Amino acid sequence: MLLGKVVGTVVSTRKEPTLDGSKFLIVRGLDAEGKPTSSLVVAVDAVGAGVGEVVLYASGSSARQTEMTKDRPVDAVIMAIVDQLEVGGTLTYVK
Question: What is the CATH number of domain 2-84?
Answer without folding.
Answer: 2.40.50.220
